[in-house]
Amino acid sequence: MIDQAASLRKQITISTKSARVISVVSGKGGVGKTNVTVNLALSLIQMKKRVLVLDLDVGMGNVDLILGRRSNKHIMDMLQNQLSVWEIIEEGKDGLHTIAGGRNFGSLAQVTEDMLNHFVKQLEELEKFYDFIFLDMGAGATETALKFVLSSHEILVVATPEITSLTDAYSMMKFIYIEDKHLPFYLVINRYENEREGRETFNKLKHVCQQFLDKELICLGKIPLDQSVLESVKKQVPFTINKPASSASKAISDLAQAYVGAAADQRASYTSFINRLKSLFFER
Q: Quick check: pTM over 0.90?
């Protein structure tokens, strides 16, 4: 771990870029949010991008489960023991870097101000190293989680065609929109049964966003219901690795291509994630 930290720090000194930070939300659990996040990240790595997935569903983190990993250290280890962020980053053979949220911990809402100061300081080091940082948020919206979401450059909303998922996804977007009307919303429809259902699901959410929020909702991609996804979850191997030729894997690849293009279009509105985060956590 020490050797890895030294290697990462060496690379960061020669980088001048700033990461794009994406909060992945769903409104409700059980829609495949973490699975979409991990496999999208892996597809971006195939495009030669440097990607970190930060599991902010602290205490209920599922990123390790999807990847079949057992991380040695977690976010709360860093906060409670004042560790460097490089000491808790895990790098898999697939090239994906992750920070585990851990299980059987309390939530981020329980951390002290000193812990938050340390957390923000450590995250600051990551901006110059990665191309994309995905924040895998927990279901629902706590005050602490909302600050991370509002600091992001865009919001990736994952929803299924189920009416409860659509309702909760809209509620989540409305909650965020009230705080910041300018944050871009990208939608991923997961587990649709046919093209018509996928298209109608997006149109429903797009319509309510336009009618009640006067907000554009961009459909980033749709992922079909695919048995290989369930098989991969059971094996704890991401489906883009376990079944790269599956319909779900092809959809994720297309989604990654679409996201890179969309992120480039938004670059003009870029401001520092860390600066936003500092202002939200430490404004007086």
A: yes
